[in-house]
From TrEMBL:
It holds the Pfam family EAD8. Residues 137-278 form the CHAT domain. This is Uncharacterized protein. It comes from the Bacteria. Residues 9-99 form the Effector-associated domain.
Length: 303
């Protein structure tokens, strides 16, 4: 069974859940929801002006019949987007569609396997595209590559933070870019560089806690933020000083290579540091792994 082969009862239940959501009842919100779910190509597949139940039923049927894209049913994108909007039995039903039904296919499609790669380069002085490419190559060549789905969001804007976390429901969040001397990450806001307040960012992860298990802050001076985030997230990686661009890239490549080959966060971190030693880079002591109280990084694996 798969999301392309919903039983009639499952189809009706899914339509009922979505139709009851105020976010889908308003006609002017439907296009926005599809964009947020990563389904912008399907905006015109169903008339947006239809009655809510008719519209939702037609949309689900169209997504189901379309099949797969990038190795996953396009309907899974919609269901994954809906999960944070539900609770109780409705949420359990959606998570069952995403998780238990797809693990038997050797590919877990829930947010537990999403690596959300966020990057911001206001000064255009970092090689973030190269870092992203090498991380992707490391995962693709790994033994457990089917357990990871990389979502890349470049030129991060302040207003994107909440929406990306809600949309992708990631288990791993990677930030690549600049950090200021106080430890904040630097993004764009109204066409200007903006240091995201540490308290506010930690509150965001606290509000949305549940799916995120690992945060990698591949930016300079990020240790204060990493220490604070580790109060909420199981594992967080940060830096205690300025770190070279090449060091950051090499660490990320080796770290995710280890993680995607089934190693624990502890071992993957050690492999990342060792990669800097192999390259004769001097930044090894600037990288630090923090864990939430009671968490053992040796026990945290993703495949």
């Amino acid at each position: 069974m798969s999301l392309e082969q919903l039983t009639m009862e499952e189809f009706r239940r899914l339509v009922q859940i979505v139709s009851a959501m105020p976010a889908w009842q308003r006609i002017d919100n439907r296009q926005f929801n599809l964009i947020m779910a990563g389904l912008e190509h399907f905006i015109k597949c169903v008339n947006l002006d239809l009655d809510t139940q008719v519209y939702v039923g037609s949309l689900i049927r169209a997504l189901r019949d379309y099949g797969s894209d990038d190795g996953q049913p396009v309907l899974a994108k919609l269901v994954r987007y809906l999960v944070p909007m539900t609770s109780g039995e409705d949420r359990q039903f959606l998570e069952t569609l995403l998780g238990e039904r797809h693990r038997q296919q050797g590919r877990i499609l829930s947010g537990d396997n999403v690596l959300l790669f966020l990057s911001a380069n206001p000064g255009h002085d970092l090689h973030l595209d190269r870092e992203m490419r090498l991380v992707e190559e490391a995962i693709r060549s790994a033994r457990c590559r089917g357990h990871f789905r990389l979502e890349k969001q470049v030129d991060l804007q302040l207003n994107d933070l909440q929406s990306h976390l809600l949309r992708f429901n990631p288990s791993i969040v990677h930030f690549s870019g600049h950090g200021d001397a106080q430890g904040s990450i630097v993004v764009m806001n109204d066409r200007r560089s903006y240091s995201v307040p540490i308290d506010a960012l930690c509150d965001l992860f606290r509000i949305l806690k549940g799916s995120v298990r690992l945060v990698v802050l591949n930016s300079c001076f990020s240790q204060p933020l990493a220490e604070r985030l580790a109060e909420v997230v199981e594992c967080v990686i940060g830096t205690s000083a300025a770190i070279g661009d090449e060091s950051a890239i090499e660490f990320a490549k080796a770290f995710y290579r280890g993680l995607a080959n089934g190693e624990s966060v502890h071992i993957a971190f050690a492999l990342g540091v060792n990669q800097l030693d192999l390259k004769h880079y001097a930044d090894r002591d600037k990288l630090h792994l923090f864990t939430r109280s009671g968490v053992d990084a040796k026990q945290i694996v993703f495949c």
